[in-house]
Amino acid sequence: MDASQPDPEALARLATGFDHEFLDPSLLVRALQHRSWQAEHEAPDSNERLEFLGDAVLGWVVADIAYKTFTDLPEGRLTDLRKSVVNAKALASLARQVGVGPALLLGRGEDAAGGRTKTSILSDAFEAVIGAIYLDAGPAVAYEKVKRLLLPAMHKALPNIDKLDAKTVLQERAARLGFAAPRYFVESEGPDHAKIFTARVVVGDVEATGQGQSKKNAEQVAAESALASLPATPDA
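The structure assignment produced for this chain is given below.
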């Protein structure tokens, strides 16, 4: 196989995965050109500029979908929903589903090191393909492709949104109940390589604690515990 071009079968499967027939196939090829391949082949472009564009397109589309679809969510939860599907891990998972890995153009060293399965490379390439679709067919088509791929993930993530940032949820609920902002007190014990953090949160007349391997995790657990003890509304 010509190392300067993607595997034709993998390329065809990828186009099917994105449900897009490129008017300019060179855009798709460019979206798959990792910088390690660019360096070995002295090519003028890697996929990084397309990745930059695709990242912006994804942010726009997901924000628009979230705003129009989940009309009962406040701004903070909309932000959490967007973050839950537009992040390296989530995008890499989608990249695997549509077949990005086998179609990548990687340098020999990166390929031997398992680059086709690396989260960062897959997520970047996924964004680059979205950027390529945007250039190839325009914003309306790119919107529909992103919606088809990410809306199911958004629905799946929705039940767990509150768990993404219990501290924010607790702060919002405290304000709704007329309480002052939650106060956190954190202590730690154990050696540096195995510290255990204990967080205590006080909100209204509720006090709760939580433990974790980091200050942030301990505070999140404490916030979740406090939420379980607080009513959702003043008259609940």
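Interim note for the steering committee: The chain has 13 helices and three strands. The beta strands are 183-189, 196-203, 206-212.
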